[in-house]
Amino acid sequence: MLEQLKAHYKEALTTDKSISNPNDYEWFYTNSGEQLGILKRHLTEQEKQLLSIFLTPIPQNQPFTNKQEFIWYNFLIHGNTKQIDLQQNHAPCYRFIQFHLKQTTVYKEDFCAAVKELLPSNLIIIWENAHQGVIIEEKNEGDRDVVSFAEFIDTLSSDLYINLRIFVGQVYPFSETLREYYMMEKQYFRLALAHISKQNILTIEDVFPLLLIKSSINNKELQHAIHFIDSIKEDDELFQAIKAFFECNLNVSLAAKKLYMHRNSLQYRIEKFSERTGIEIKHFKGAVTTYLAMLAHQYLNHENRQDA
Question: Which of 232, 215, 235 is nearest to 293 (CA)?
Fold first, then answer.
C-alpha cells in the first residue's frame, strides 16, 4: 500500500519525521507501524476520510515516536480500545509507573532516553501534559524488581536537574480493564501528592490507609486497591500463614508454632508472598497495608455472599 501511495502522491508524501515543516502534513500510521505524512494542500476532505479507513491518523502536536505509543495513548487517555484489541504481541502483564515533575522545561527526549536506560524491561512512555505522564512496563508474572527506585529517582533528578515524584503501581494482566486500573492508580497518585509531601516514591502501601480514611470510598474502589491480594486468595495455606504471622505480632517463631510448622517453612511463605505481591510485609507500611487488605477482602466476600 505504501508504494501505491508514493506513486500517487509522489513528492507530496514523506516518511521523514524530522522534516522542517511537519505541520504542513497530515500524518498517518500504516498497519505495519510506519509513519508517513502527506501535504495537506494535496489532500481533499474526502481523501482524508478514505485514507483514515486504511491508515491510522495521528493527532497534531503529540510527540509519538511510534505507533505503539499512539495506541496506548488513545487507550489510556481516551479509552479507545479498538487498536489495543488488535495487538498480537502484548506482554502477559503490565505495570504503570506514574510520574510528576515540578519543572516544565525538561527535554522529553532526554527524560525518555534516561528512563529506558535505567529500567531494564521494555517500556512505553506516555506524556499527559508538560508535568506528568506514565511509564508502561511490560512484565511477566512473578517478575521481581531488579532496580532500586530510590537510585532511579536520584539519578534522574541529578542528571536532568528535575524534581521528580513517582507512583509505582501494581502488576496487572493484559486486558481491557487495564485502563480502569490505570485511572484508579491515577487517583491514588493525586491523593498521595496532596497528602504525602516529603516522599518521592509512592506505592499502594502509602496510599491504602488514606483510601480507608476517605469517607467516600466504595466497594469497587476498595476491590481495585487490594488487587495484590488476588495473587494469593486462592492459596489458602499461604493466606492463613500470613494471617497468623500478623496475629502473632510479626513474630515468626510464635506464628510457626501456632501453625505447627517449622520456622523456616513460614519464612519461605513470607518470602513467597512478597515475591507474588511486591509488598514487603516485614516493613511497617507493608504489614499495615496487607493486614487491612486481608480484612477488606474478607469484608467484601461477606458482602458478596449477603447479596447473592
Answer: 232
Helices 204-213 and 178-195: angle between axes, nearest 10 degrees: 80
pTM: 0.71
For the chain, give every domain's residue range. Answer: 2-57, 67-202, 227-307
Considering Cα of 249, then 144, then 79, then 152, what sign does the dihedral take? positive
Backbone angles phi, psi at 196, to 5 degrees: -120, 95
Q: CB burial class (10 A; 0-12, 13-18, 19+) of residue 136?
A: buried
DSSP label at residue 46: H
Domains 67-202 and 227-307 share a fold: no
Task: Give the C-alpha separation, 212 to 209, whole Å.
Answer: 5
**Top-tier CATH class for 67-202:** alpha beta
Q: How far apart are CA 54 and CA 22, in angstroms?
A: 21
Query: Closest by alpha carbon to 32, among 10, 20, 15, 11?
Result: 15
Please give the CATH topology (third level) of the domain spanning 227-307.
Arc Repressor Mutant, subunit A (1.10.10)
When comparing pLDDT for 204 and 58, which is higher?
204
CB-hemisphere CA count at 13 Å for 20?
A: 0
Q: Please give the grid coordinates belonging to residue 126.
A: 506516555
The per-residue pLDDT for range 63-101, each reduced to its tens digit, is 567 778 888 888 888 787 877 776 667 899 999 999 999
How far, rounded to the nearest angstrom, does the alpha carbon of residue 209 sit from its chain's CA centroid?
A: 21
Q: How confident is the model at residue 129 (pLDDT cuts 50, 70, 90)?
A: confident
Strands laid side by side in the 56-57 sheet: 13-14, 35-39, 25-29, 56-57
Output 255 or 145, whichever has higher pLDDT.
255
- The neighbour count for residue 304, using CB atoms within 10 Å, is 10
CA distances from 61 to 25, 128, 208, 222, 258 (A): 12, 12, 37, 37, 62
